[in-house]
Amino acid sequence: MPELLLMAGAGGGSAVAPARRPRGSLSRGEILEAGLRIAKRDDLTSLTMKRLAEELGVTPMAIYRHFENKAEVIDGVLDLFVRDAAVTGHEPGAGPEAWRRWTVVTFRRMFDALTQTPGVMPFLSTASRFGPAATSALNAILDVLRRASMSEKEAVETFAVMCAYTVGAAGLATAWPDPGGRADPDEKRRRMRLSIESTPRTDFPHVVDAAADLAGTLQRFPLEIGLERLLPRELPKPPLPS
After folding, report:
1. Closest Cα to residue 40, out of 101, 119, 93, 103?
2. Which band of pLDDT confidence, cut at 50, 70 and 90, is reported for residue 215?
3. When comparing pLDDT for 40 and 22, which is higher?
4. In whole angstroms, what is the distance from residue 162 CA to residue 139 CA?
């Protein structure tokens, strides 16, 4: 078909352009899946209706038949990201500290998903609504926190603080490459400890005394330490009934 051929170069060669889809064959879900592919491959800042159309082999107008604007597409893509991350897809387990372990694992999963797809992070604060996957994940987290005897307000505030910390940690981890390259971690800790210990103790006693802990903590990303610190240590009220 002549309309599917593109002339390539002065030599008269040709290349086949992406075939156009039949009219009306595109679904809302397919558009969002294509948007998520773009987000994982590049980032959401590069997502445009034109690029989505090229990814799907349709015209931009075909996208607008399903979505009013790009912001609506991005909201949907973010919800698919949450779905694929499956941060709450694990059982809380048993025991008085089970809720704490479950919460740390949940936000660790969120951190891992964000560092694998960092292009979604700038848009997390701009989402205008909770999609089905995000609503389900939020409900699961609040349920565990409420069953740990937190009040509704305490559970919401804990969720918000944990989210802020996790997103910030993921942003730092992806934006701050290791300047030491692939040096041996033990050697890097040793060098940092020696550097700290060479500081005059009379001027900075607390820094020098903490040299070993500082070197060990700063040379790895202490995500779980931070998550544990953010969770309350004592929950005096009795747990909610099942």
Report:
1. 119
2. confident
3. 40
4. 15
Residue 23 backbone dihedrals phi, psi, to 5 degrees: -60, 135
Q: Residue 145's closest CA among 100, 109, 105?
A: 100
Q: Which helix (H) or strand (E) holds 216?
A: helix 211-218
Give me the amino acid identity at 231.
Answer: L
Q: Is the dihedral of CA 23, 27, 28, 31 positive or negative?
A: negative
H-run or E-run covering 5: strand 5-8
Q: Which architecture, in CATH terms, is 18-67?
A: Orthogonal Bundle (1.10)
Query: HSE-up of 36 (CA within 13 Å, CB side)?
Result: 19
- Residue-level pLDDT at 18: 46
Q: Which of 138, 150, 146 is nearest to 232 (CA)?
A: 150
pTM of the model: 0.73
Domain residue spans of the chain: 18-67, 86-177+224-242, 186-219
Q: Please name the residue that has the structure tokens 């897809």.
A: 89
User: What is the chain's alpha carbon radius of gyration, rounded to the nearest angstrom?
Assistant: 25
Do 155 and 203 touch, CB atoms closer than 8 A? no
Read off the pLDDT of each residue in 197-223 and give the average, rounded to a whole number.
81
Alpha-carbon distance 119 to 40, whole Å?
7
pLDDT score of 23: 58
Say what the pLDDT of residue 21 is. 53
